[in-house]
What we know:
The protein is an alpha+beta fold and 70 residues long. It has helices at 2-10, 38-60; strands at 15-23, 26-34. The chain has a two-stranded antiparallel sheet.
Amino acid sequence: GTELAEIQNQHPDIDIGSYPLIKDGKLGTSIVLRGLDMAEIDVATEKVTGLISKVGEMFSGNTHGESMVD
């Protein structure tokens, strides 16, 4: 979405990719951040995590942040 593109634009040295997936019969998305500057990756990750939480709450009312992270 637009907000993810905004985060990408704020961190041009970080590559952000999103990839659809099906796990245990559930649709999901893997979001990957790649770069050489770990501090910048950490900052961008915090922003992406905040966006995911915000979107998750909008769609489900869930404030607990369910994740399929392995």
